[in-house]
Specification:
68% of the residues lie in helices and 5% in strands. It is mostly helical. A 6-stranded parallel β-sheet has the order 3-2-1-4-5-6, with helices on both faces. Helix 24 packs antiparallel against helix 25. Pfam families: Na_H_Exchanger, TrkA_N.
Length: 595
């Protein structure tokens, strides 16, 4: 009996997975980052390496979906308030860096013999840094929240947004087959505008009701399918009218940035984005032609030097001019001088538009890859200088501001209890993020002016997307004891630095929470019951000092009973429930309640 043939792409998948499993950990161990590992894996298994697989061009068609999903996630993260706080770094510093660096590199490429269109695409593409690469360096060093880390992030954010007009620029620069009639041009413009309007209309008015309906079904796989449908569907609409798929996904993400399902969408998309982005880098590595590299070694080496020198100089000068210290400016300059993943996207689009050929794209890709490899070396060199010589301009003393020190709180569960907690916190200007898993409750809270997002407290990816990793305190205000217990175990394992404050549904739940070692717990009706009793005593004529004494005594006996119950069980300590609070002699003589 003949053996059945393997499914399509089975052998190729095995090779891809094996190469990345080997290369990525080695690259990360060497401090080069996962992106370099993916590129190296692709170079080794590709047609110019050991030829374990064929051309990377076919793989790129699938892997480009990773870029589409990346832009969708970037769009989701563009919260208007965050953008407004960082507006100078994003739109001022970031725009100046891209324009000045791009034009300088364009002039260098033009002088080197590139055609005008090819030089412009090459210069602007090389002006973009690697978001994945730079953010990984900042996170590994614990500097993402530092002043220079925030400025670097602002620049990267602008660069991520810049890919959209740059892709449009490639389409404009592409040689046309024929001019077409005026009517044809108007029809094409109308079709494009109609597609953009369709995406905006769907994102604004149709997607949120759809997710509300699907969330009520409590079927996670359906929500996941809907998230991919929104991202890829909007990309497909744009692609159908000749625009970039990335533009459609980015636009859909921006429209959903204020949606209550933002964090769940981000968490659902992330695994697919990461996997497809890894595949994208592998495919780019496969397209690296070592023959081209060796034949143009002097040009590529010179290009790497020019790229890193020009970009580093502009980064240092612009950050210094806009108020950064020399130390911060130097660290931004050595963190962002490399070419980025979007350069690969731009160069691939340029090849498809016949602006330049694959050989030119491979030469430019080689410059980008080598600049990535040298960036960690530049960072280590600056650290060496700072430690060895303690140079005044290189030291990076911590700078603390009130904004950086302000705590953030994640509130989980936004019913009546959670809403009151949120009101107390926001009354002191504390920033909160709230999640809940009931769409109707989320809709009601939003009508009251609260930003509440859909999310499952038992999913680490959702909690991470909602900010649990940087929260100073997590308020567990949900009603389900089992869900809370699962969430507490998850948070203790994944986000151990956050303080855990919990709402207990009853006394048994309070005991269970205490045994789990939460930082604070309170029974949901305890304080309101005491307030009720105080009001009743007041109405019955008890003096205020007597009411205070009773309140203090009841609290003391309740705490003693909890201690006994922790040691002996739920039904122990019942004697602490009974008894009369001792009276002061003067109170005993004049109490109107004395029988």
């Amino acid at each position: 009996m003949a053996a059945e043939s393997a499914p399509p792409f089975f052998a190729e998948s095995i090779v891809f997975l094996a190469a990345t499993v080997v290369a990525v950990p080695i690259a990360k161990r060497l401090g080069l980052g996962s992106v370099v590992g993916y590129l190296a894996a692709g170079a080794v298994i590709g047609p110019f390496g050991f030829a374990l697989l064929g051309s990377g061009e076919d793989v790129l068609h699938v892997a480009e979906l990773g870029v589409v999903l990346l832009l969708f996630v970037i769009g989701l993260e563009l919260d208007p308030k965050k953008l407004w706080r960082m507006r100078r770094d994003i739109f001022g510093l970031g725009t100046a860096q891209v324009v000045l660096t791009g034009l300088t590199l364009f002039a260098a490429a033009w002088a080197a013999g590139f055609a005008f269109e090819a030089a412009l695409v090459a210069g602007m593409g090389l002006a973009l840094s690697s978001t994945a690469f730079a953010l990984q360096i900042l996170q590994e060093r614990g500097q993402l929240s530092s002043p220079y880390g925030q400025r670097a992030f602002g620049i990267l954010l602008l660069q991520d947004m810049a890919i959209v007009p740059l892709l449009a620029m490639v389409a404009i620069l592409a040689p046309a087959d024929d001019g077409g009639t005026f009517f044809d041009i108007l029809r094409e413009i109308g079709t494009v505008l109609a597609a953009v309007a369709a995406v905006i209309f769907a994102g604004r008015y149709l997607v949120s009701p759809l997710f509300h309906f699907l969330a009520a079904s409590r079927a996670r796989e359906v929500m996941l399918s809907a998230a991919l449908l929104v991202a890829l569907g909007s990309a497909g609409i744009m692609h159908a009218v000749g625009l970039s798929m990335a533009l459609g996904a980015f636009l859909a993400g921006v429209l959903l940035a204020e949606s209550s399902f933002r964090h769940t969408l981000e968490a659902d998309i992330e695994p697919f984005r990461s996997l497809l982005m890894g595949l994208f880098f592998v495919a780019v590595g496969m397209s690296l032609d070592f023959t081209v590299l060796l034949d143009n070694l002097a040009f590529i080496a010179g290009g790497v030097v020019v790229l890193m020198a020009v970009k580093g100089t502009f980064l240092w000068a612009l950050t210094r001019w806009t108020g950064s210290s020399n130390s911060d400016a130097l660290r931004v300059a050595v963190t962002l001088p490399q070419g980025g993943e979007f350069a690969f996207v731009l160069f691939t689009a340029a090849v498809g538009s016949q602006i330049f050929d694959f050989r030119t794209a491979n030469t430019l890709n080689a410059i980008v890859i080598l600049s990535m490899l040298l960036t960690p070396v530049a960072c280590l060199a600056l650290d060496f200088v700072a430690v060895r010589f303690k140079a005044r301009g290189v030291e990076n003393p911590p700078v603390e501001t009130f904004e950086e020190a302000a705590p953030t709180v994640l509130v989980i569960g936004f019913g009546r209890f959670g809403m009151t907690v949120a009101q107390m916190l926001t009354s002191d200007g504390i920033e909160i993020t709230a999640i809940d898993n009931q769409p109707d409750r989320i809709a009601d809270a939003r009508k009251l002016g609260y930003k509440v997002y859909f999310g499952d407290a038992t999913r680490a990816d959702v909690l991470g997307a909602a900010g649990a990793g940087k929260a100073a305190l997590i308020g567990m205000c949900i009603e389900n004891d089992k869900v809370m217990g699962h969430a507490i175990d998850l948070i203790r394992g994944e986000f151990p630095k956050a303080k855990l404050f919990c709402r207990a549904t009853d006394r048994a739940h309070a005991l269970a929470l205490t045994q789990k070692g939460v930082d604070f717990q309170i029974r949901e009706t305890f304080e309101s019951s005491l307030a009720f009793g105080r009001a009743a005593l007041s109405e019955l004529g008890a003096p205020s000092d007597r009411i205070e004494a009773i309140d203090k005594d009841v609290r003391r006996r309740d705490a003693e009973r909890l201690e006994i119950q922790l040691a002996e069980g739920l039904h122990a300590g019942t004697d602490r429930l009974h008894g009369v609070t001792p009276r002061e002699p003067a109170d005993a003589a004049q109490s109107p309640l004395k029988g």
